[in-house]
Design brief:
The chain has 119 residues and is of the alpha/beta class. The chain contains 5 helices and 7 strands.
Amino acid sequence: MTDTESRLTIIEDGPISSVRFLDQNILEENSIQKIGAEILQLIDQAINPKLLMDFQNVEHLSSAALGTLITINNRIKEKGGQLRLVNINPQIYEVFAITKLDKLFKIYEDSDKACASFS
């Protein structure tokens, strides 16, 4: 993997940016930093960011990845934007529930419901 190779698929659909992770395991600090930097850059380029993060391919997240999600959420709120998470597998959702992150993030079962929730 080169330094510039993205670990994300980003699709712009009108005002909503959809981010899908290519990796099943988001565990390595270096990868998490690259993913975080790429998403933060996307947020910083938007005036009122609406970000949909799709975890369909993801089976494992590290605590560092959860910390990056919190940073992303904070940056979006600073810019008056909105964040939605979708397709989180039950094992990962359990971690969100245990850590109370399910209260911090707006989590949806599928992209259609998440997109409809943006105001």
